[in-house]
Amino acid sequence: MAGDGRASGDGAQVIEVRTAAIPQVVPTLRTIAADIAMRQDFDLDAIEDLRMAIDEACSLLLPSASDGKLTCVFTASLGRVELSVSVLADSAKLTEDNGLGWQLLTALATSAKRTVTPGEGGFLSRIDVVRESEAVAR
Q1: Nearest one of 89, 93, 95 to 120, comparing CA atoms
Q2: Which is nearest to 85 in space by CA: 101, 99, 98?
Q3: C-beta separation of 11 from 19 below 8 A
């Protein structure tokens, strides 16, 4: 697992984690998400929502990881956390929008989006999640 904490051009903090696409790493990703949200002064409910959102995004993508790798990018700026979870898949097929996992994910996030783009040796399947603190959303 590799982490790369850096600031983007707009001052946002970016952390990228590349790891094996196995369920055992999800608790670590949940902990990173919670730590970032705490540093952004999210309330306890929003922190737990973000932890569950990363869990749902991973559970939707892990089964399709064809090369056994998962990448998660966390971007934090004032009152906002963005998560991008991606895997290389053999198929461009996404899970259904009416699936329980996707419905839960969209309920936990300020916004969520899925994309699939052709890549080297397969399709890059990605879920992008944005969660804003209640103070920013008002």
Answers
A1: 89
A2: 101
A3: no
Instruction: State pLDDT tens for residues 1-33.
Output: 444 455 555 678 999 999 999 999 999 999 999
Does pLDDT of 77 surpass 80? yes
Please state, in angstroms and as integers, the Cα–Cα distance from residue 111 to each residue in 18, 106, 107, 114, 127, following that order.
Answer: 23, 6, 9, 11, 11
Pairing of strands 122-132, 111-119: antiparallel
HSE value, Cβ hemisphere, 13 Å, CA-based, for 126: 15
* Burial of 76: CB neighbours in 10 Å, binned 0-12, 13-18, 19+: buried
Asked if 22 and 72 count as a contact pair (C-beta separation under 8 A), the reply is no
Alpha helices of the chain — where are they, by DSSP H? 26-39, 44-61, 100-108, 134-137
DSSP state of 41: T
29 touches 15 (CB < 8 A): no
